[in-house]
Design goal:
seven-stranded mixed sheet; 482 residues; alpha/beta
């Protein structure tokens, strides 16, 4: 239970309060008996670990803060100092009976990605324990009546919270990412911390009792935190997620979506799919047009809206991390590579399969200008020399990732603009994923979004990508082939 959100250490003490979220988490673990394998996500100074150490056969944990980790590491068989998403890769020596995420998910930019990573870590029948602050608590509602939403150093409106949840939206988050919620326990406001005047005798006893009764009777209104107990749900994933980054594409998207719908409808057997359009802060009606078109075509579809234009890399990252398919295809709104070519990428059988214009020139049906061709060849030469060797074409906008590869690669990606392809391929290689370069049909679109400035920015980004990834990541051995 990390010091990013959990009340522990010199800033956030462990809550020795009956019925607090810490007390509920501890009681749920104690009720499971002994000989447990437990993963404590965000273990902080080890306050939970020291209380459950005696009943754990195997106790592992992840903590971002190295100072807190040094204090708590001694209670763990396997302490990992890393961020939550990266650290969930282990090394763990066995699956877990219990995964605990106490006051963690609200601090993550993509809590759903962490939940997706929890799934393979749990044994069949294993238990996920999550505590989340309830932003619909009466104290927050009362403040909003007077136009106040005061951030603070602790509590529901902790200034480090990136996501806010109600009782319902917390449950929906878990269910959306493959968990069946089997229990919800609302906790009462900790007056000893939030309102010290009510936490002292003679008011402490009556105030605590009243708060517990109100939280139990009306958890959505009076619950301070909600502790969720969840197990793995049986999920059916689509076979393919298609991610389309879009900036001011209201004219081209209807054509692209119609072609995708025709292709999906003609397949035998059917290919269960979802289509995700990421509107990258468009100034036209990209999102509304996409939604209307997809509804008329009967596609399984959703739009992700970025509030401002951040770049193609940011849009692709948002779409890929939201995808749930067994495979994730990234393709452009102009469908320069026809959607039918995805069968070639699937047939390659690689965790990462990329469409290429550099393997078979006869498949390039409409060529770019001499300047674009020359600059593209120079760029790819620099990519091979500086960043990712052996790949002839990193910039074709038609790439397929397995679900595991997509999650691992794009959770680490940082480049928002056009050099994101190079970063993604370098990350995939450092993570040990095999990359297959597959020749595909390609038609030049004259309405390109890459100007001279974007090209120069991409050239400069190569050096930053090489430096950042080599500095922060050790290469993972590739799995044996065959």
């Amino acid at each position: 239970m990390s010091d990013t959100g959990a009340l522990e250490g010199p800033r956030y003490p462990w809550k020795e309060i009956p019925g607090s979220s810490h007390d509920v988490l501890l009681s749920r673990i104690n009720a499971l008996g002994e000989g447990l394998a437990v993963l404590d996500v965000g273990f902080g100074a080890g306050h939970l670990a020291r209380r459950i150490r005696s009943r754990c056969r195997y106790l592992a944990g992840i903590e971002l803060d190295p100072d807190a980790a040094r204090e708590g590491a001694g209670f763990f068989d396997e302490p990992v100092v890393d961020d939550v998403v990266s650290g969930l890769g282990g090394p763990w020596r066995e699956p877990f009976d219990v995964v605990v995420a106490g006051d963690i998910l609200e601090h993550l930019p993509e809590p759903g990605l962490a939940l997706a990573r929890f799934r393979p870590l749990l044994k069949p029948g294993g238990l996920l324990l999550v505590s989340l602050p309830n932003v619909a608590n009466v104290t927050v509602r009362f403040g909003l009546l007077f136009g106040r939403f005061p951030l603070s150093d602790r509590g529901i409106l902790d200034r480090t919270h990136l996501r806010f949840f109600t009782r319902r939206t917390g449950r929906e988050l878990l269910e959306r990412h493959g968990f069946a919620v089997i229990g919800e326990t609302p906790t009462a406001m900790p007056f000893e911390l939030a309102l010290p005047a009510l936490g002292r005798p003679p008011l402490a006893g009556p105030a605590r009792t009243a708060a517990r009764l109100l939280a139990a009777a009306w958890p959505g209104m009076f619950g301070y935190q909600i502790v969720y107990e969840a197990r793995l749900a049986v999920m059916t994933f689509p076979a393919l997620s298609l991610v389309i980054p879009a900036y001011n594409e209201e004219k081209r998207l209807p054509v692209a979506l119609a072609r995708i719908a025709d292709w999906l409808g003609s397949r035998t057997p059917a290919l269960p799919s979802e289509v995700i359009v990421v509107d990258d802060g468009s100034s036209d009606r990209t999102a509304a047009t996409a939604e209307k078109t997809a509804a008329g075509l009967g596609l399984t579809f959703r739009v992700i809206r970025l509030p401002q234009n951040r770049g193609k890399g940011a849009a692709v990252r948002a779409g890929v991390l939201a995808a749930s398919g067994e495979h994730v295809l990234v393709t452009d709104a102009d469908l320069s590579t026809p959607i039918e070519e995805v069968d070639k990428l699937l047939a390659a059988g690689a965790p990462v399969a990329i469409g290429s214009r550099g393997v078979d020139a006869t498949l390039v049906k409409e060529r770019q200008s001499l300047f674009r061709v020359a600059s593209g060849k120079l760029f790819n030469l620099l990519v091979r020399l500086l960043v990712v060797s052996g790949i002839r074409d990193t910039q074709c906008g038609f790439k397929l990732f397995s679900r595991d590869a997509a999650g691992e690669v794009f959770s680490r990606a940082t480049v928002d603009r056009f050099a994101f392809d190079v970063e993604a391929l370098l990350l995939a290689r450092r993570l040990g994923y095999r990359i297959a370069e597959v020749p595909v049909l390609w038609f030049n679109s004259p309405d390109t979004r890459v100007g001279l400035g974007g090209g120069l920015e991409a050239f400069a980004a190569l050096f930053r990508i090489r430096w950042r990834v080599s500095r922060t990541m050790r290469a993972r051995p590739a799995p044996p082939q065959g």
